[in-house]
Design goal:
TIM Barrel; 2 domains; 30% helix; binds zinc ion; eight-stranded parallel sheet; globular
Amino acid sequence: MVLSGDAVRLSDAPLPPRVWMAGARVPAALLGQASVAAAVRCALLLDGGRIAAVEETVPPGDVPVVDLEGGTVFSAFVDPHTHLDKGDLLAAGLKPERNLFRAIDAVRDDYARWTADELRIRMGFALRTAQAHGTRALLGYFDWAATGPRGHPLALDTMLDLRDAWRGRVEIVPASLATIDVLADDAAAERLGRTMADARGVLGVFVYPSPHVAALIPRAFDLAARFDLPLDFHVDEHLAPPVANLPVVARLARERGWGARTVCGHACLLSAMDEAARDATLDEAAAAGLALVALPYTNLHLQDGTPEPPWATPRRRGLLPVHEAAARGIAVALGSDNHRDPFFPAGDLDPLQTLALAACAVQLDDPVERWAATITRTPAERLGLAWDGVLRPGAPADLVIHPGRRSAEVMARPTRGRVVLRVGQPLPPEAAEPPDFRELDALRR
Ligand SMILES: [Zn+2]
């Protein structure tokens, strides 16, 4: 390849303010080509921290050139489902569980020991980790019931402080995780709605599997409309039909015209329903226009788990039927969910590792070419971010560059060789590596 300008390398930081990224391989969806399941070989001109041009090849001129030699370029990642307030509770001494409700109880029992200092350490560690992996924005839940001395969720205050401190690095969208029972009490519901409106966040509700909670779901839509809030549901995170709440959420989202502002995570039950019920539910979700978020790490770990010895190997995997959803045009995103807490004893808030796991767990062909939007564009649109993640002139030069030249290479070594550019520059060395776990030793109680 004959290149026109001086050759520079990604490691030659700082990069020139005006530089071509030649030989880039970009998933077509990230160039704004919605229906093309392919990757496009192209050159990106970065100028002053923004994308100035996207061309097939580098035109003649004297602008310096980085030759990516077919490496893959993503727009910076967006993670639509993280639990920042619980992350690294294992470092504080809690134990992993093998059952969702055991994990919920373990964390509830721990609320009284949470302090602002500890939350700041655990959440800050999570944000530095996410940044190093190339995440530019995330939705962070906080448990609504974990109130601090002012009767206000302690983790929300910490999250709002961190949102200001991290602006321009990792954008935080706060979301409540309130059990739907809160909505049974008008005053409590009012307080939840007003708090989330004041926080400019998302009204997030945990819909646990019980037949009586369906009657409360309309109240979530009432509250969302009243305070003009996007809605997010943890819904049907179980494998025991017939109790199914996603059909109720989907019908209400359609009837209330709130589908574009409704996201549902988990929906593990869809994998355990008979096909007719599953298809009818997905048809309703498609008609509503809501988005579904698959959380493969935590769901593979917890669904069909055995709470007590003797341990048994899970047989039913509880994964969102990603293909059937996407085939109906439903927006599907992938999220990290829990990391290193009683819900999941690993996890590192890395969307590319999540995509690699999903590729195996739900059989994604060509995950980079066909599914890159699940960790970039789709969650960016659903979180209402200022930038939708499409690499077009004028967009921020916030990129994740991986040396892999095709899905097999990227998925085989998702964590190796990645370079994160923010505002057109590689992250500084202290931000480019995830923080050292030894820093968390101070959390041990
Ligand atoms: Zn979750």
